[in-house]
Design brief:
By secondary structure, the chain is mainly beta. It has one domain. The chain is built from two helices and twelve strands, in the order E-E-E-E-H-E-E-E-E-E-E-E-H-E. The strands form two sheets. Strands 1-2-3-5-12-10-9-8-11-4 form a ten-stranded antiparallel barrel. A two-stranded antiparallel ribbon has the order 6-7. Strand 9 and strand 10 form a beta hairpin. The radius of gyration is 16 Å and the shape is globular.
Length: 217
């Protein structure tokens, strides 16, 4: 399976795992070395959410349909995130390096950012807490550099070969108990699980929040 990023292409719903409260929506297109994600979050999910398949109505949406939906669904001070997710796969060659292990933090590729102003509200920085990504009986991990008060944020997602893009399979994201005091520690934490089929997704996020929906979401 070729994975263009964390999410299945097209629309998906974001819900609270415990209550199933609707938290927002996401729309994803293949772009660059992975995918461009557009997140509409009705409130800050604080790293506790589930990604599930879209309703039948949303399943065939185009970008125009999505943008109409954002304008109609916007609530004052909701959050909108543009996120470019670049995918790197175990064993593939990038530049002159074959990724048989995850490169050191200093040697990782730089994130790509969408051409938008703002900062990230998709995930929060939690003082080194590692974020869990769960499907069925396995787990991936995510790590966030910078946080809500910054103009931009970077996310690092390490996912196993068994991963199915969220939206095709229900996927829970939550704050875990593991700690990584730096990106270097996060990289070392994941070296043992960097096996054939695993992917590292580096995501540059930019955010908008305000009374009215963003222009051209």
């Amino acid at each position: 399976m070729t994975i263009t990023g964390l999410l299945a292409l097209g629309a998906a719903e974001i819900v609270d795992h415990a209550t199933q409260e609707l938290l927002g929506y996401v729309f994803t297109q293949a772009h660059g070395q992975g995918q461009l994600q557009r997140w509409l979050l009705l409130r800050n999910p604080h790293n506790e959410f589930e990604i599930r398949s879209p309703s039948k109505e949303m399943a065939g949406w185009s970008l125009d349909d999505w943008q109409d939906h954002v304008a109609k669904s916007w609530r004052p001070n909701a959050f909108y995130v543009w996120a470019q997710a670049d995918v790197y796969t175990h064993g593939d060659t990038y530049g002159e390096t074959t990724w048989k292990q995850i490169p050191s933090a200093d040697d990782l590729p730089k994130p790509s950012f969408p051409d938008r102003p703002g900062s990230n509200f998709q995930l929060d920085y939690l003082d080194g807490k590692v974020i869990r990504v769960v499907q069925d009986d396995w787990m991936g991990r995510a790590y966030v550099v910078r946080g809500l008060s910054q103009e931009s944020s970077i996310e690092y997602w390490v996912l196993p070969a068994r991963y199915v893009p969220a939206g095709e399979a229900r996927t829970r994201v939550s704050t875990g108990s593991e700690q990584a005091r730096s990106l270097s520690e996060f990289v070392e934490m994941n070296q043992s699980s960097w096996t054939p089929g695993a992917t590292l997704i580096i995501t540059g996020c930019l955010n908008y929040t305000g009374e009215a929906a963003p222009f051209a979401p």
